[in-house]
Specification:
With about 375 residues, the protein is an alpha/beta fold. It is built from ten helices and 15 strands. Strands 3-15-14-13-4-5-6-7-8-9-12-11-10 form a 13-stranded mixed sheet. The chain has a two-stranded antiparallel ribbon with strand order 1-2. Helix 1 packs parallel to helix 2 and helix 6 crosses helix 7. The protein binds iron/sulfur cluster. Iron/sulfur cluster (SF4) binds next to loops. Iron/sulfur cluster binds next to loops.
Length: about 375
């Protein structure tokens, strides 16, 4: 029997739980959808294969897990969170044991790289231990995405020693007033730039990356200045096209700055040479500086140059929902299994079946695109 109840911490969305012990995949929940609503299924239909691998129905193998460890953030970026956002109750957020268990199971199903995300992962007091334990589950690479407001040379060194391979920062403006207006945070832009500089001196396995979301009318006039960060510290400055995942649902094409235009603007000050993608499933199209200055510039262009065809990513949210695609309207709830005594095989099977449901692409420019209810901060990028 299926019991439906209104989920108190998300406006209007329904969760269904199977009563009694989890008995295996047969049920799909289909509800009349309100626009943009996510459907939380109890169990995905069985995938038509028994391979212990995360594969979707379009033949793409999952090798990259984005593991959100909190939905909380100390910033309220204008393209992401509302100022009065309510966060999940703590008891809905995965424990460190659950995080480690899912990471280990995903590696056993073919995941090679794990990225810890948020919200802002550094707001978790047990982050050091999470890095230590997740770095030992057998993945080839462990990365962290942060807004850089709560890290310094000491913490970066500590995380590196605990097993962190790579780090990615977010910074959308170098102007103190605009940084404050875009992040709606009490942290100065200097604090974040200092963290980036400190990270560039730590021997991480890969280049320090810095992401900026470019929004027309907000920070599009700063792309060359931001590219200057790459030249100053020898890091990789990546520019992300604004995507419809914002809490205020203010996204429209007029606010999008296409990657081609961003390249043109940077090239006008720092001539660039195209360097392609480091691997087929990489999200970034890279450029190097024509004058040989160290550092790289990357374009993440999901709207104008989608890269869904080679997508190898799967996401697990901080409340243990499997989101096969960033823009999924379906997500699959692992928490009843994790907290209901299910064994590793059951959970692995669940993830295999959930992955099979992954949509072909985001469909942002298709006529029937619906923005997911979950915002970027509750997905984890
Ligand atoms: S939109 Fe979905 S399918 Fe496309 S790259 Fe992102 S996660 Fe992959």
């Amino acid at each position: 029997m299926l019991l439906m109840r209104r989920d108190p911490d998300t406006s209007g969305r329904f969760d269904g739980y199977a009563i009694g012990k989890f008995t295996g995949p047969t049920m799909i929940v289909s509800l009349p959808l309100i626009s943009g609503q996510c459907r939380t299924g109890v169990t995905p239909a069985p995938a038509p294969h028994d391979t212990p691998r995360l594969i979707d129905s379009h033949g793409r193998a999952i090798r990259d897990l984005r593991l959100s460890i909190t939905d909380r953030c100390n910033f309220r970026c204008v393209y992401c969170l509302d100022p009065d956002t309510r966060f999940m109750p703590h008891d809905r957020v995965m424990t460190i044991d659950e995080i480690e268990r899912l990471a280990r199971l995903c590696v056993s199903l073919g995941v090679e790289k794990i990225r810890l995300t948020g919200g802002e992962p550094t707001v978790r007091n047990d982050l050091d231990e999470i890095i230590t334990r997740v770095s030992q589950v057998g993945a080839k690479d462990l990365a962290l995405t942060t807004n850089g407001s709560r890290c310094d040379a000491n913490s970066l060194r500590r995380w590196r020693d605990a097993g962190l391979s790579r780090i990615t920062f977010s910074i959308d403006s170098l102007r103190p007033d605009r940084f404050a207006a875009m992040t709606r945070a009490k942290v100065s832009v200097e604090t974040v730039v200092e963290a980036i500089e400190a990270a560039s001196r730590v021997d991480f396995d890969g280049p320090v990356k810095v992401n900026a979301v470019v929004v027309r009318g907000w920070n599009d006039d700063e792309v060359a200045d931001l590219a200057g960060l790459a030249r100053r510290y020898g890091i990789e400055m990546r520019f992300i096209e604004f995507m419809p995942l914002d809490a205020s649902r203010a996204w429209d094409e007029s606010r999008l700055v296409p990657a081609a235009e961003i390249v043109e603007r940077i090239h006008a000050r720092f001539p660039l040479v195209a360097a392609g993608r480091v691997e087929a499933s990489a999200t970034s199209l890279d450029y190097v500086f024509a004058d040989g200055t160290p550092g790289r510039v990357g374009m993440i262009a999901p709207v104008t140059r989608p890269f869904c065809g080679e997508c190898s990513r799967l996401r697990i949210t901080a409340d243990a929902k499997v989101r096969p695609c960033l823009f999924s309207l379906d997500e699959w709830d692992l928490r009843p299994l994790l907290r209901g005594g299910a064994g590793d095989d059951e959970i692995a099977r669940f993830m295999v079946d959930a992955t099979w449901t992954k949509q072909r692409g985001h469909g942002i420019r298709s006529g029937d695109f619906r923005q997911p209810e979950r915002t970027m901060s509750a997905i984890g990028g």
